[in-house]
Write a structure and sequence with these properties.
Low-confidence stretches: none
Structural class: alpha/beta
Largest sheet: 5 strands, parallel
Mean pLDDT: 91
Strand content: 5-15%
Number of strands: 5
Number of helices: 8
Strand order of the largest sheet: 2-3-1-4-5
Distance between the termini: 33 Å
Length: about 210
């Protein structure tokens, strides 16, 4: 997919409970205070495909009889991503806005890659252009698990501890070769994590002095 971006595209990644959603909002607020136009978005999206995905993730367990297979879920994520790019990300970037996405391609390589061949997950996402910067908010699985328990809610398809342990390991492994990626320690208080992210962005020299 051809990009006509004028703005900057930042993806936040991490295991469930790492704080990606919190940091997307906080970083966007800080950048907005500098006079930048910032769009915060997420995957799965609020579009039709994303809504179907959210329903499936909330109501089915991995491998459950009658539920979608890992491959079917992977294809839905890839389709939702293309819809995301077409409807939200690329128009915002073309207009000069900064886009901060709570999850993007790396999430698929990690989550779908637990159950599927990595080459196949890469292939179905090959037309999604890379972000200008990916920030991995890294936390140990036990920290992420405690945070998930603290926020309550329903137990979703990918929430069980054994799967999330694989998620943390895969994020750390893939972060070593993933392009334009910076790891941020997510175990600290949110203010410190936000400050770290803003320092990473500042080092890119994208912000006017």
């Amino acid at each position: 997919m051809k990009s006509t971006r004028r703005g900057k595209f930042i993806a936040l990644e991490g295991a469930d409970g790492s704080g990606t959603t919190t940091q997307a909002t906080r970083v966007a607020k800080s950048l907005g205070a500098r006079g930048l136009s910032v769009v915060v978005t997420c995957e799965p999206t609020a579009g039709n495909i994303g809504a179907l995905l959210r329903h499936l993730l909330a109501t089915t367990k991995a491998g459950a009889s009658g539920g979608p297979s890992a491959a079917e879920v992977g294809l839905l994520f890839a389709a939702d991503r293309l819809d995301h790019l077409r409807r939200e990300i690329e128009p915002a970037l073309a207009g000069g806005a900064w886009v901060i996405s709570d999850r993007y391609v790396l999430s698929s390589l990690v989550y779908q890659g637990v159950e599927l061949p990595l080459w196949w997950v890469r292939a179905i996402n090959r037309t999604a252009p890379p972000p200008d910067l990916t920030l991995l908010i890294d936390v140990p699985e036990i920290v992420a698990r405690k945070r998930r328990a603290g926020r309550g809610g329903t137990h979703e398809r990918f929430d069980h501890a054994a799967f999330q342990k694989q998620v943390v390991l895969r994020y750390r492994r893939l972060s070593k070769t993933f392009p334009r990626l910076q790891v941020v320690d997510g175990t600290r208080n949110p203010d410190d994590v936000t400050a770290d992210i803003l320092r990473v962005i500042a080092r890119r020299r994208w912000l006017a002095r």
